[in-house]
Write a structure and sequence with these properties.
By secondary structure, the chain is of the alpha+beta class. It is elongated. It has 2 domains: 13-119, Hemagglutinin Ectodomain, Chain B (Alpha-Beta Complex); 122-177, Head domain of nucleotide exchange factor GrpE (Nucleotide Exchange Factor Grpe, Chain A, domain 2). Strand 4 (161-163) and strand 5 form a beta hairpin. The strands form 2 sheets. Strands 1-4-5 form a 3-stranded antiparallel beta sheet. A 3-stranded mixed beta sheet has the order 2-6-3, with no helix packed on it. Helix 3 (33-98) packs antiparallel against helix 4 (103-119). The protein has 4 helices and 6 strands; from the N terminus they run ααααββββββ. 55% of the residues lie in helices and 16% in strands. The termini are far apart.
Length: 177
């Protein structure tokens, strides 16, 4: 067998990276001024398009927030007005309990209940229901009558009302312990 001599060059990592990296000066020489200008304009166009899309998205978000804010303000105004009408309903209920056969009071009660229904205002169910602090305000606790589960509402002192899922006024109730 013959001995062959093999010559090995040592190469550093930096030398290898330089050899693999594109040579900028060679690229600059091979590109024409028009190609350079096209690249610059393409980059500028991409930046402008990005700015446009971001601005359009920001504008759309601002519009959405404005609509939500307007709806929120309108809802707050409606709730404020409705809260002022609730004492009128309470007075009509009290008058109806005092004089149940009065046709004028019955008519007023019917008109108010009809208007409440059209507006989406509902009474909070209380008597026989378990106490829910989100809907009921317990103002008194009494011994549980026989057959009544603890923490059940046994009497309603003042009616509570809701509009949609928003509580206008909690019901004042008496709870069994």
């Amino acid at each position: 067998m013959e001995d062959k001599e093999v010559k090995v060059e040592s190469v550093s990592v930096k030398d290898a990276e330089k050899a693999m990296a594109p040579n900028d000066s060679v690229d600059a020489i091979t590109e024409s001024p028009e190609e350079v200008k096209i690249k610059e304009l393409t980059v500028a166009l991409a930046e402008t398009q990005d700015k446009y899309l971001r601005t359009a998205a920001e504008l759309e978000n601002t519009r959405r927030r404005a609509v939500l804010d307007a709806e929120s303000r309108a809802r707050i105004r409606v709730i404020s007005v409705l809260e002022k009408i609730l004492p009128v309903m309470d007075a009509v209920d009290a008058a109806l309990k005092h004089t149940p056969n009065d046709e004028g009071i019955k008519s007023l009660d019917l008109a108010l209940k009809s208007s409440f229904a059209e507006l989406g205002i509902t009474k909070i169910k209380s008597v026989g229901q378990p106490l829910n602090p989100m809907l009921h305000n317990a103002i008194q606790v009494v011994d549980a009558p026989e057959g009544t589960v603890s923490n059940t509402i046994v009497e309603e002192m003042q009616t509570g009302y809701m509009i949609g899922d928003t509580v206008l006024r909690t019901a004042m109730v008496v709870v069994a312990k």
